[in-house]
Amino acid sequence: MAEARAAVNTLRVGTLSLEQVTSAAKLRGVQVHGVDGGILIVIPSVKFLWRQLVGRIRYIGQNFQTLCWPAPVWGVLVAIALFTAAVLNSASDSWLRNNWVANFLWSVDENLIGFLSLSEYFPRGLRILYISSYTAMASLLFLSLLNRLVMRIFLQYRGWMYERKPSIATKIWGALMKSFFLGQGQSALMYSFQNAMPRLPVPPLKETINKYLRSVEPLLKPDEFSEVETQAQLFLKGEGANLQRFLVAKSWLSGNYVSDWWEKYIYLRSRSPILINSNYYGLGYAYHIPSAIQTARAGVLVHYFAKYKRRLDSEQLPPTTIRGLVPVCMRQFERIFATTRIPGRDSDLLKHISGQTTTHVAVLYKGTYWRVDTLSDSGLLLQPFQLQDQFEALMSAVDNADSSGLRVPGKDDPEANIAALTAWNRTRWAEVREDYFGEGLNRMSLEEIESSIFVLHLDDRAPADWTESGHLSLHGGGTCRWCDKSFNLLVFANGQATVHAEHSWADAPVIAYSWEWVLSHESISKVYDKAGNCLRPEASVDTAALAAKPKKLALRGPTRLEWLLHAKAREAIAEAVVHAKALCEDIDLVVDCFATKTGGYGKGLVKQFQCGPDAWIQMALQLAYFRDQGHLDLTYESAATRLFNEGRTETIRSVSKESKEFVTVFLDPNSTKEAKIAAMRKATDRHQDVSRDASCGKGVDRHLFALYVVGMGLGKDIKFLKEALSIPWRLSTSQIPQRQTEGILDKIDESMVSPSGGFGPVADDGYGVSYMIASDDQTFFHVSSKKSCKATDSDRFKGEIFRALQDMRAMFAK
After folding, report:
1. Which of 500, 503, 687, 782 is catalytic?
2. Is 687 one of the annotated active-site residues of the chain?
3. Does domain 205-267+587-810 correspond to CATH entry 3.30.559.10?
């Protein structure tokens, strides 16, 4: 720590002034600010313009490389050169120069040049050169596009998802996929398969209606179900067919028939606070903290997030595949960094800054906000120790405010709680933003936060267990999570680290993959010394490289973001704090692990019972919920639809006739073990079929939702759709995959697991359950509910889940 403190003394902290804003803005682009009744116009620097040009050229190169795949760029260029040389060296009466294609191209070029009056300046040899070159280029790109088209046709096959053992057809399909598409020598870029992703199909209307009726029948009384069935048939024979035609047309004219509407109407149009109601969290390591020094841990994690961003910007992240054969859509990764949800009076807006235009993080520490760059002045990534020095500098300035002369707001000062505005009702936040943060110093500081790649909170609290970490990560008390940012990185005083994520820009598996990538690289890299500080040049393997480039490693110190808050702005923040704290105080969250070492078990035992782990847990949840509430309710489980272009999620309706029968048989004291096992197998088999259908685009809820949007667009408020979509999800569940980072998993100890993350309950009188099947020996559960609901209790329900899992194991006891 002494080394770090000494290095901090060489850094200077500053505050956001006109000079600071101008300096920072010249590295980003044109900005216009109203300051003190005047206008400040910032013109980009030459350095910024050069970086933009280089970035644009690199972007074009990446697109060209993606377009050329599976052929390497050099191979394409060589092929073009060889073809051009062959044409140039051929006789004028040869087939290469006199076939009908050559004559047609020559005629087109001649007419074009004649139209532009340039023919006299273009020698015949030059014209042959560029005509043959672009002909070769067009031919090769046509073959590449044909490759994508054929691949898209192959990817329509879904038989492999429904088979316990691969059929002959699946084996042949897999061999062809491996040979002609995924098994080729040229490494694919991140978006190499994107143009081959199939479009999400619109399911047959009758099929969706029948699935819906089947899912609600176990939950309704006979007369209630008869009424719903009648409404469904009337819709099917009436307006349904017309709405279906509109939806099919949209599916052919857009990248995805539902994803854009889902983002707009489910997320961005919602006016409720997004804290707890929409945002979610992810925890770090379950049993390990690499360094107990807060600033060192922050330096390493910020460094690897910045490194990860560079890989995304250069499309060097390998595309994700299932079983190495089936690619999934990577579009959601585009908006991980530098994305902010901007509040609006009626609808929010997602603002994303692409490329290397922005490279700084916004840092929150004890109510003060700072800008910290992740790159040196020459564009090199700052090393972890350099970032640690910056964090030490700003923390020292705040902690020693009397000697540093820094003005630090008190804990209850509205200035320290500005983030509470992002946790408020979206319309109220939009109004306050327009009224008090729309110009001058406040606007400049707000733009620094909203343009940052993410927000880092150096939290001075130290969570003692998973449950406390969950609470602090989900809401932090309501006043310190910048809920609008794509994600917040939270590093606590004891070195623990977690993330808090906004939901509209992407789904949880995307941030989970990114978080795992960063944690994995931290784990396999030697970045800490024995004391827990970041390694410095004299102790680093990069000593020579760092010493050789002292000027390139020059960096600016952290910059304090200032605010000028008038009385009404302070009143608005104080009101937002009251609402945010009320939300936080009402949440009941428990995080625990069902593990072999504490008498539980993991997926290893479940597989011995020849049952799917996810279906097993879902049946345990149904059993636990019935014991807790005395009845079953509509249950949501998320399924990814990233097998399709721009796919997001679909709903797995976990309650079925089979699951209800399983619960009934299991709780019948007269039932035999054999009867219970038989009922369980029928229920889990049914659940797996529903799950596969959902992932294959044959679910119920997104289709009904899209039909409802079409109906509203046509001015038709259809009772059947409205009521179908209004039934509350009193049990909302989700499973997050782990160990997704291919290529480095074999270097990581299997004990380096994360408890994953969780979310708030969807219904005020229900439960939210997130679970992570971490290994053969443990499963983590995050259970949430509202304290204001007397019928729910998270700890009680967690106990019922564990009890159900134990009882289900007992079925197989000999």
Report:
1. 503
2. no
3. yes
